[in-house]
């Protein structure tokens, strides 16, 4: 059985640390067994290795998240990249097409789909392995995992099983679904043995291929990728699950949590303070996460989260934090991003008029890594080396660089950079259009 890890998200629910390129699963706020910090995707990837499933996993993601995926879990991770963002049904269809037509999976083999940000214990993945037998040997077209609820939550969807018939099976047939009911209704559903829907399901390859063929779209990987924009922009639940009659659910009794908001994420953080700052002793159940180099002090504020990053500052009561998306009406460029070569942080940006912009960013490049050869048509750049040594290539001419050097790069000049040691530099961009669209690979 192959596993498809879904890595998506718009990056708004955990703003300002998350953004379009660094969604919630990439925030390094969870403690590792050795006492360091890791992200949700690093945690799941480590768990898959520990239970022997990592070699069977591929990640379905968007173009904007590929760099940070490679940065956090390594360039060897198999990635199926969407040509554009179109929700979970197209992403899953493309990943299964890749497994079928490129990796050679048979139509009767099983595929399991998991969110990449699942916060679970290791034995959860043994339940995932059990899904294979259900979809390959039963009459069910879909097999889900349902978490036994610990309280009547209004935040989760519920899987309502068919009343037991007396025949003992490890799984149950699904009657229907209920999305985020009021607390009183949730309590009644739990009384009917309803389970939390954790977004994990499995199916046969051939069955999913048939769902795509019904739309009149070819299922060979390259063909599907070329016509990806014709797939409906819809979730897998709405396009497939809600229209499927033969569904089984496998109950799971154990720890599971959706860390989608600041209040739930902070419950799993082992320290209340990350970064430069201080919390007063009377700031009870308050978390401070600071990614800037300036100190932040929190005095006498309880049950709150304070998050500080180059993208903005959030001060919120924990109970109110799920409403964050309601107030994020503004749009801005990404101010911090992790890359395969290191990271960058925008320190200043200004638009003077229609034809003149200026952007300054601090770049940190790891030893042995670098920027591949490229050029810009509309902007010029000035690099000031702050620390370390490396080699730059300008229009085919190579020369060493070190701390104190200043390099001017004009439009249309091909350039690349390799760091011999850890290297930091300040980059000043100027021109009429300072966007990633003006980065042309050579």
UniProtKB/TrEMBL annotation:
GO terms for molecular function: mannose-1-phosphate guanylyltransferase (GTP) activity. Residues 3-268 form the Nucleotidyl transferase domain. GO terms for biological process: GDP-mannose biosynthetic process. It comes from the Bacteria. Gene3D superfamilies: Jelly Rolls (2.60.120.10), Spore Coat Polysaccharide Biosynthesis Protein SpsA, Chain A (3.90.550.10). Transmembrane segments: none annotated. Residues 363-423 form the Cupin type-2 domain. CDD domains: cupin_PMI_typeII_C. This is Cupin domain-containing protein. It comes from Cohnella zeiphila.
């Amino acid at each position: 059985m192959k596993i498809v890890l879904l890595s998506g998200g718009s990056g708004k629910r955990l703003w300002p640390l998350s953004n379009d390129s660094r969604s919630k699963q990439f925030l390094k706020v969870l403690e590792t067994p050795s006492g360091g910090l890791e992200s949700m995707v690093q945690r799941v990837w480590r768990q898959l290795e520990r239970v022997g499933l990592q070699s069977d996993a591929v990640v379905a993601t968007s173009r904007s998240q590929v760099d940070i995926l490679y940065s956090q879990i390594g360039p060897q991770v198999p990635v199926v990249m969407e040509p554009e963002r179109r929700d979970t049904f197209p992403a899953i269809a493309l990943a299964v097409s890749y497994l079928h037509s490129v990796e050679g999976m048979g139509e009767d083999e099983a595929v399991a789909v998991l969110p990449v940000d699942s916060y679970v214990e290791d034995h959860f993945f043994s339940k995932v392995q059990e899904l294979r037998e259900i979809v390959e040997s039963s009459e069910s077209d879909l097999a889900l995992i349902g978490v036994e609820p610990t309280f009547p939550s209004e935040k989760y969807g519920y899987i309502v099983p068919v009343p037991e018939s007396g025949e003992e099976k490890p799984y149950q047939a699904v009657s229907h679904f209920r999305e985020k009911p009021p607390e009183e209704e949730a309590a009644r559903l739990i009384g009917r043995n309803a389970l939390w829907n954790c977004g994990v399901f499995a199916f046969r390859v051939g069955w999913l291929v048939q769902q795509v063929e019904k739309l009149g779209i070819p299922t060979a990987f390259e063909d599907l990728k070329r016509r990806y924009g014709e797939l409906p922009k819809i979730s897998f639940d709405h396009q497939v699950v809600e229209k499927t009659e033969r569904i089984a659910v496998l109950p799971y009794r154990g720890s599971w949590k959706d860390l989608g908001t600041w209040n739930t994420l902070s419950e799993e953080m082992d320290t209340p303070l990350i970064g430069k700052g201080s919390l007063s002793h009377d700031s009870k159940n308050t978390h401070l996460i600071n990614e800037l180099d300036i100190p932040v002090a929190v005095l006498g504020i309880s049950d709150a989260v304070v998050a500080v990053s180059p993208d903005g500052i959030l001060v919120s009561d924990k109970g109110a934090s799920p409403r964050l998306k309601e107030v994020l009406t503004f749009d801005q460029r990404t101010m911090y991003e992790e890359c395969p070569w290191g990271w960058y942080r925008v320190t200043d940006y200004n638009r003077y008029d229609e034809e003149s912009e200026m952007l300054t960013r601090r770049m940190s490049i790891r030893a042995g890594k670098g920027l591949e050869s490229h050029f810009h048509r509309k902007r010029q750049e000035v690099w000031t080396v702050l620390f370390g040594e490396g080699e730059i290539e300008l229009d085919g001419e190579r020369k060493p660089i070190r701390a104190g050097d200043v390099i001017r790069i004009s439009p249309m000049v091909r350039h690349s950079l390799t760091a011999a040691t850890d290297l930091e530099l300040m980059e000043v961009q100027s021109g009429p259009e300072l966007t990633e669209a003006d980065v042309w690979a050579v």
